[in-house]
């Protein structure tokens, strides 16, 4: 459990970088934007794999008995969350987390929320807590959900310090390319999971098997 908290702390530290313009800008100026994005993506992926590997090694301690409605809730929340994350990362956004360069523009997904990545991550995480109903899922996915809410609060404070109005720019398009890409990739991921991809990747473990039923 101690190692899981260490990995979780490292995950939070890594994902705090995009919320700090000063740190992010300094890193980009030192190594370049392409190298920053590549290294950040690799580091985040490795830490995420480490987190899941540690969680899978923990004993399964049930908090509530699994039920069909719990899995159904996750089946709805997780695709929505994944769509928001993908569309948000690909969209220009002056208010929150994105992979795009700051341009002062806003993607169409901001008609839904200023924080699509963070809300998407929250929905994905909370859906997995509900579906699994065990201690390790509560620690792992509950931690992700809490981090997302904390990130939204920090981003709102940052926008206030920068004197950004809540909805300074109204996107002209109701649907744009990032939203279409997000929808296509989410659909592909959902089809893969329905075809048994989840079990193929992680095996028959309660931590992951209940997330798609």
In summary, what is this structure?
This protein is an all-alpha fold and 213 residues long. The chain contains nine helices and no strands.
Q: What is the secondary structure topology, with strand pairs?
A:
Elements: H1 2-15, H2 21-31, H3 33-57, H4 68-90, H5 116-132, H6 135-161, H7 177-194, H8 197-202, H9 206-209
List keywords for this structure.
mainly alpha; 213 residues
What summary fits the major beta sheet? none
What are the secondary-structure elements, in order, as H or E? HHHHHHHHH
Average pLDDT score:
81
Q: Give the amount of beta strand, in percent.
A: under 5%
Number of strands: 0
What is the gyration radius calculated from CA atoms?
A: 18 Å
Structural category: mainly alpha
Count every helix, treating DSSP H or I runs of 4 or more residues as helices.
Answer: 9
Helix content: 55-70%
Low-confidence stretches: 209-213
Q: Describe the global form.
A: globular
**Spatial separation of the terminal alpha carbons:** 27 Å
Please, could you describe this protein's structure?
The protein is mainly α. Helices cover about 70% and strands about 0% of the residues. The protein has 9 helices and no strands. The chain has helices at about 1-15, 20-30, 35-55, 70-90, 115-130, 135-160, 175-195, 195-200, 205-210. The two termini are about 25 Å apart.
């Amino acid at each position: 459990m101690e190692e899981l908290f260490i990995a979780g702390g490292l995950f939070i530290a890594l994902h705090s970088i995009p919320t700090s313009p000063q740190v992010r800008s300094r890193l980009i100026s030192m190594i370049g934007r392409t190298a920053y994005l590549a290294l950040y993506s690799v580091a985040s992926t490795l830490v995420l794999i480490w987190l899941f590997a540690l969680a899978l090694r923990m004993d399964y301690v049930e908090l509530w008995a699994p039920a069909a409605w719990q899995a159904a809730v996750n089946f709805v929340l997780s695709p929505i969350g994944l769509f928001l994350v993908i569309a948000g990362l690909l969209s220009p956004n002056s208010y929150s987390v994105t992979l795009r360069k700051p341009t002062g523009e806003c993607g169409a997904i901001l008609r839904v929320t200023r924080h699509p990545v963070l809300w998407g991550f929250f929905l994905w995480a909370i859906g997995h807590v509900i579906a699994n109903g065990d201690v390790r899922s509560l620690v792992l996915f509950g931690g992700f959900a809490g981090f997302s809410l904390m990130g939204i609060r920090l981003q709102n404070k940052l926008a206030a310090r920068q004197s950004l109005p809540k909805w300074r720019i109204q996107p002209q398009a109701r649907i744009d390319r990032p939203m279409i890409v997000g929808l296509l990739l989410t659909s592909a991921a959902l089809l893969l999971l329905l075809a048994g991809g989840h079990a193929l990747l992680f095996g028959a473990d309660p931590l992951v098997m209940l997330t798609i039923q």
